[in-house]
Amino acid sequence: MKPFGELVVSVYREGNLAPISGAQVEISDMNGNGVQRLQTDEFGIIQTVALPALPNRNNRSDNTSGAQAVQGKYNVTVKHPRYETVRLEGVRILEGSKAIPEVHLSSVRSEGLPVMKTLKLEDPEPPVVKIGQNPFNISELTVNSHAIVKSLKLPMSHHHVPYHHNPHPPIGLTIPETIRLHVFPKEGTNEPVRTVVVKFVDYIKGVVHQELDGFTEDEAIKANIIAFVSFTLNRYYTDHYRNQNKNYHITNDPSVDLGFIERPTMQEPLVRNTDAFFSQFIEYPGHPHFPFLALHCTSGCANEGKLDMEQSRILAREGKDHVQLIKQFYGQNYNPRSAAFIMINNQFYTFINPLKLGDSGGRVQEIQTYLDAIGKSYGLQVLRRAVEENGRFGEKTLKVVKAYQQYVLKWKGNKITGVVDQATWYNLLTNYYIAINSPSRNDHAFDFPAPPPPARLEAQTPTGELVVSVYQKGDLTPIPGTQVEISDMSGNIIRRLQTDQFGNMEAMTLPALPSDIRSENAGGAPAAQGKYIITVKHPNYEQVRVEYVKIHAGSRAIPEIHLTPARMEDTSAIKTIKIDDSKPTAVKRPENPYNISQLSIHPQLFYSTYKFAHGYEPNPHPVIGLVIPDTIRLHLIVKRDLITGRLIRTQARTIEVPFVDYIKGVLHKEINGFTEDEAIRANVIAVVSFTLNRYYTEFYRRQGKDYHITDNTGIDHDFDEHHLANAQEPLVRNIEEFFNKYIEYPGDHFFPFLSQY
């Protein structure tokens, strides 16, 4: 008998969750043959469709995860006359599961040119052999919970009740808002290695869709999710990679960490259980607030103290629950434990107990407020009826919560309970923030007349790419629904876009600066081609305008814009960031690079002020040169443009800069426009070596100066203060990969050479 699964497609506006009704959804097989055509309802959802599915086997094979699978994979094309067409390729329908892809549409431009955006969904990779690790690593605990709490804003009174009695909760009890993930490309592709910031829950969902492909047994899914969360929190709280001088918490290498899919076909059983259990971890024996490094395998490790995923499915079918499964694989003294806090929108929230019919009080009123704001923002009047009960969980609230679970969460059958459990609460809270931070469906603030189409590019015109990321000031919390306006140097608007849930706009191709960026045009009067003005607007934040972002031929500009909340008395404030153009480098003054005699920082003195990484216990004072400092003191001098003579900086000052940010600022001035990876790496290593030499010889401090290095291009390196707003992907990627490498001094390989160029 042919296996079947279900498909429900939801269609929303780009940047938020405003549903688009009347959108046409065309489902076709992988050969392009039409299967079914439907329309979305008032919630932006099509009716549930049953389709032939990929078979649900006990172990994944090339048939279920490889690119050659035809049955059970589909293309979904979404069309609406007022929006650009989007096509999803490779939507996977799994036996006994429900696929719930969301499609976000951008408003069509006024010129009416046919535009279709194609998104290729990823298949899970085949399982790999796991490298053995010691799970008993509590000695590696390095993250201080006090430091985390002090850096974060406690919630205001109308949010969930803050943890008043202990302002410094024990370690392990807080789920971080985001996690830094190092992404290695798939084999056989030319994609770059990169580091991305992902919301913690979205990361777990990406892991679950890779590791648990095809799972439909709820208790097995729950047990595996808890193990994945525990492993991830262990990596986070032990600073496993940061202790190796890496600027991330975890990788997508499944042999040592957890597999991860950035763009999966979302499956309802996996999403629902992740939302319900992402706060659960396995406590380390004897240390209930420290997450255990829970290891797992695909199969065959049931007696090795690891979670055997395939065996967990079999046992779940036999009636074992997730707690029994965890104890069976890890031991009777390993218990699931719930975190007490989660960071959302840079604020602490306590997890709630379930709210149900008959309850009343402040937490019920909060839920009713969330529902009302979501319903008001997106024109869903049915969700606004709960607020009428004013803190009482009555029949109206029950019906509204059930409607939310059915139409927004896409739950079905006995899963639609009307009880506000953790999954419902978390989804309501995150969607509430999206609603209040994004324009509503009825707010036409972003419905601008589209600009005229850009002139057709000649074949010889060089092009590059632009991707703008928008975050809150002071952290990396993405701001979805932000308008990003790109203009040429004359102020003519080229295009307006909105940021997605990750705070990113879609990549766009633009005319670029020629490869020879060290020309007079690049350093003098602004070149017209390849330089742009970016204006970022959001109703809840001050506007930011960046002049001028450079697009280099064959490269990708990835500027980050950080927005400050708007003051109530002035919502029209605009901050202008003027990027100082690269210019011909000044002639360097020659120095003697063989300066080891000037070494002045003693290793014992240095290590008395730094907490070194785990693993150095046999030698508490490792040889000098092996540690990258956290920050560096940089002296910015009064500066004139070498071509125009105008003052760029009118007053000298000294600032403290994170070491990696300093290297990025240097390279975005010194080799701006480079795209050749090997050349970039060589320059990165040379600049790092020069900088470490200045640092360890105390070159300037021995002259009575209170800094390590300057931006005087005659003797040190130039520095771009606004490198975040001028970031270039090839430079950022290679700097983050090679900032810990230097050139060894001849005959003394622990001392960095004063490398000049």
UniProtKB/TrEMBL annotation:
Pfam families hit by this protein: PG_binding_1
Protein origin, superkingdom: Bacteria
Span of domain Peptidoglycan binding-like: 360-426
Name the UniProt record assigns to this protein: Peptidoglycan-binding protein
